[in-house]
């Protein structure tokens, strides 16, 4: 009997060995072949080293950017600043999600479904979860962006178009929900119905990797942070930034009017820009998941070093993204949108901002890395950070430092702030009519010159 059992075990082992694709060799876990995909609207910035800081004379005598050779890894960067049109896509997504959730929740409370018509057509799309894992049920629709609701795992119906025309509202329950997202009648004027923008909030979680890596105690959950951010840009910046100045048309029209769709978004704080990056990552990976593709790297704000490296466009000693040291071309045209002279904003053919794809791009094919709007970076502002920051992917960042580095200068700045090495900062919860942003995404693997 013992011999029979041993023979059986040997036979099973033989079958297992013969059927194995590895043939007993160490071949590694076989995953899908990774093919990097160039993100839409981005350019690949190849890894490299450069002399970061003030190689030219420091006319302002700030002495906070001594030269230092550093190296950055490859990354993708938006070829333009994020535009009003692109940011409106984010705002519309948040608004759409909030309205659909409100409709589905009320329909659920009323016990109405698609067969009942009216608000019932927007009821939750309950999937057959009997064959799903706990994780799959949770990920079905956890309302990322809305925060905890108590109704996680019930999918929103995004197939049914929302009705915005009041004359076409399907029933009184639908009307009740839609009225709740607008300002009350006494706060409206000129017969316009205005969305209550304070309801447009994006809720997301992230992990403080820096704190977790440096901590000797604490569990993973101790480093998970939750943020809730109002998404609508502060359009009042056009009034508040300039006292005794008539800028009402920009306040009224700049963000939402189609005439300004391709202009850079402003009035967005550093915190709002970070929330946008999280949403953009989610929006892309939701699509990747639906097509059975691997998730992409997260979108984020560039570090200060990445921003300067990209702005230089491969020109080592350039004062400006086009080289330097002049802001006027040999044909007599200004090379960027800024304030050329005291009180003269329009000498460069622009009073405020210009379209995001204006002027000539630098050698990395990036537009307006000088002027137009200054840009948020992920880095915190420390005057002496160049002295102690790493020479490999330097980034001085601190959650306790509310001052965040902005780069590039803007339409209201003099030429000094357009220089690729000039540092400036703003507080992270401040919004300005002259600060926008662009995003980056880490490149995975060895870069290919064809990307």
From TrEMBL:
Key words of the record: Lipoprotein
Molecular functions per Gene Ontology: formylglycine-generating oxidase activity
InterPro entries in alphabetical order: CTDL_fold (IPR016187), Glid_motil-assoc_lipo_GldK (IPR019866), Sulfatase_Mod_Factor_Kinase (IPR051043), SUMF_dom (IPR005532), SUMF_sf (IPR042095)
Domain Sulfatase-modifying factor enzyme-like: 42-440
Signal peptide segment: none
Keyword Nucleus: no
NCBIfam families per UniProt: GldK
PANTHER family: FORMYLGLYCINE-GENERATING ENZYME, SULFATASE MODIFYING FACTOR 1, 2
Protein name: Gliding motility lipoprotein GldK
């Amino acid at each position: 009997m013992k011999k029979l059992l041993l023979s059986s075990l040997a036979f099973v082992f033989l079958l297992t060995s013969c059927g194995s694709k590895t043939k007993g060799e160490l071949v590694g876990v076989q995953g899908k072949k990774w093919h990097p995909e160039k993100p839409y609207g981005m350019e690949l910035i190849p890894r490299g080293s450069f002399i970061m800081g003030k190689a030219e004379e420091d006319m302002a005598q700030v002495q906070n950017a001594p030269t230092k050779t550093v190296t950055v890894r490859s990354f993708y960067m938006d070829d333009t600043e994020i535009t009003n049109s692109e940011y409106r896509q984010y705002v519309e997504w948040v608004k759409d999600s909030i309205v659909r959730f409100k409709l589905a929740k009320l329909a659920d409370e009323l016990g109405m479904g698609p067969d009942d018509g009216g608000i019932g057509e927007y009821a939750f799309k309950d999937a057959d979860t009997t064959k799903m894992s706990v994780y799959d049920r949770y990920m079905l629709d956890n309302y990322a962006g809305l925060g905890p609701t108590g109704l996680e795992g019930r999918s929103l119906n995004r197939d049914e178009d929302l009705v915005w025309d009041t004359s076409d509202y399907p029933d009184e329950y639908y009307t009740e929900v839609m009225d709740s997202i607008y300002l009350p009648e006494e706060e409206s004027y000129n017969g316009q119905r205005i969305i209550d923008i304070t309801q447009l909030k994006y809720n997301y979680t992230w992990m403080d990797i820096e704190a977790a890596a440096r901590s000797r105690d604490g569990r993973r959950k101790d480093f998970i942070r939750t943020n809730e951010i109002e998404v609508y840009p502060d359009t009042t910046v056009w009034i508040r930034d300039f006292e005794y100045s008539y800028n009402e048309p920009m306040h009224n029209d700049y963000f939402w009017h189609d005439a300004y769709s391709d202009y850079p978004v402003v009035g967005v704080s550093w915190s709002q820009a970070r929330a946008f990056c999280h949403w953009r990552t989610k929006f892309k990976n939701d699509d990747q998941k639906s097509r059975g593709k691997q998730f992409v790297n997260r979108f984020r704000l560039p570090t200060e070093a990445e921003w300067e490296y990209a702005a230089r466009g491969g020109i080592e000693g350039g004062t400006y993204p086009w080289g330097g040291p002049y802001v006027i071309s040999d044909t007599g045209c200004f090379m960027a949108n800024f304030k050329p002279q005291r009180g003269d904003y329009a000498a460069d053919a622009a009073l405020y901002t210009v379209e995001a794809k204006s002027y000539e791009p630098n050698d990395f094919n990036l537009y307006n890395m000088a002027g137009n709007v200054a840009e948020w970076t992920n880095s915190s502002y420390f005057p002496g950070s160049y002295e102690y920051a790493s020479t490999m992917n330097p980034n001085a960042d601190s959650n306790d430092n509310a001052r965040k580095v902005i780069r590039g200068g803007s339409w209201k700045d003099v030429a000094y702030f357009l220089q690729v090495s000039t540092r400036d900062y703003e507080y992270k919860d401040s919004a300005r009519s002259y600060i926008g942003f662009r995003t980056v995404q880490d490149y995975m693997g060895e870069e290919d010159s064809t990307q």
